[in-house]
Specification:
2 domains; 6-stranded mixed beta barrel; 16 helices; 19% strand
Length: 415
């Protein structure tokens, strides 16, 4: 337990550093370093959280939260949709057929992921209808062979609405192996979701037209739940209940499986940025060590006198620990306040900084995002605070122990 006299003497020594200008400068530099490190960590983690949320929203804007497909073709997709729509926690359900195809326009070829959808139900699952550049999702009519392309895919093929392209799709033929089906489709619209993996490879057709291409009657169902994070467990619990009552088995995939690579990359980048920015705090912590070592050297005679007055080594350790902890914790508090304020106002501050320094953080011709998204998580603030406080507290151990080991007899012999 910290003795009051240790806190009193430690704070006196801290105030006395004004006489030693170099030690005072190092102390101020330590406070600034800790504050900058903590603030930078909070701001960067908030921006990374914002990017992750934006990426998640755009990835899920076309695919829903989970998809189920019957193991056999005897299960009607309408029964699955009706059952899922009536279940608590499920927002919507819509049928789909997905296959990889080649799109041809003259001599230009491009691979694409073709998805057959039912327009009246798809608008409840995906955001495509709200991101149409031209045309509408309802323009997909059964048997009309209309197709909607991602904007980047349409630019790659050099096509626009009203143009005709050829879809080449693989199909298994009984007794003949793999065959290729060629069908001409007319472009009835384009969409732009702001994610290259959607806009550059995705194409939509009516569910009936996709079924003609594949030659299959089996249809999968996409599901959107009330909470994306609980979707894997919500859907699997539903399927477990179906299996328990003897219903046909459904194969399931959720958004965490389909997009695992993206979020793993974001997580690794977030960890690396945290480690790199932690070096700022580490440098400031070394400054605290240097400050305390100089203070110990300067106060050798005072330490010797305190020891002769009967103060224990533990009290001496506490005296110098107080100095380091106060320096570090002042920096942490300033850093937290600065970091939280910047994270909460980054969207309004970024344009002013761009204007001041004459460059853009997110150029519109390079990034789909034109502003820095920030999402402040209290958990990030808490763990950054705890780690910074622990680092500054640990920095006091070596100088404090060294101070407690000063032999009073040898020091006072020459006084």
């Amino acid at each position: 337990m910290m003795r009051p006299v240790a806190a009193f003497v430690g704070l006196r020594y801290l105030r006395a550093q004004r006489a030693n200008q170099f030690a005072s400068f190092v102390s101020i530099a330590s406070v600034i370093g800790v504050a900058l490190g903590v603030a930078a960590l909070i701001v960067v983690l908030s921006v990374m959280n914002g990017f992750e949320s934006e990426l998640r929203a755009r990835l899920l804007s076309l695919s829903g939260h989970a998809s189920v497909e019957p193991s056999s073709e005897v299960v009607a997709w309408r029964d699955i949709v009706d059952e899922a729509s009536a279940r608590d926690g499920f927002v919507a359900a819509a049928p789909f057929i997905e296959l990889e195809v080649m799109l041809s326009s003259g001599r230009t070829l491009a691979g694409a992921m073709l998805t057959g959808v039912l327009p009246e139900l798809e608008s409840e699952i995906s955001e495509v209808s709200r991101h149409m550049r031209d045309g509408a999702l309802s323009d997909l009519q059964p048997g009309a062979r209309g197709i909607i392309l991602g904007r980047a895919l349409a630019l790659k093929l050099g096509l626009r609405s009203g143009d005709v392209l050829t879809v080449m799709a693989p199909r298994k033929q009984a007794g003949r192996g793999l065959d290729t089906v060629l069908r001409e489709f007319t472009i009835v619209g384009t969409f732009e979701l702001g994610l290259r993996d959607h806009d550059g490879v995705r194409a939509l057709v009516h569910l009936d037209d996709a079924r003609v291409l594949t030659g299959k009657t089996g249809t999968g169902v996409r599901i959107k739940t009330a909470d994306a994070f609980s979707a894997p467990w919500t859907v699997r619990n539903w399927l477990a209940e179906r299996a328990a009552r003897g219903a046909p088995v459904l194969d399931v995939r959720d958004w965490t499986q389909d997009n695992a690579t993206y979020f793993r990359a974001v997580r690794i980048e977030k960890i690396m940025m945290t480690l790199l920015l932690s070096l700022i705090v580490a440098v400031a912590v070394f400054n605290i060590v240097a400050t305390l070592v100089m203070t110990v050297t300067d106060k050798r005679s005072g330490i010797a006198i305190l020891r002769t007055l009967g103060y224990s080594r533990r009290t001496i350790v506490q005296i110098f620990a107080v100095q380091g902890i106060v320096i570090g914790w002042i920096g942490v508090v300033i850093g937290i306040a600065t970091g939280v304020a910047l994270a909460l106002n980054i969207e309004s501050l970024a344009p002013k900084l761009e204007q001041l320094f004459g460059f853009e953080f997110m150029p519109a011709d390079v990034y789909y995002l034109t502003s820095l998204p920030a999402e402040l998580h209290p958990s990030d603030v808490i763990w950054v605070t705890v780690v910074a406080l622990l680092m500054t507290a640990l920095a006091t151990i070596y100088p404090a122990v060294r101070a407690s080991g000063i032999p009073p007899a040898e020091v006072l012999r020459y006084e």
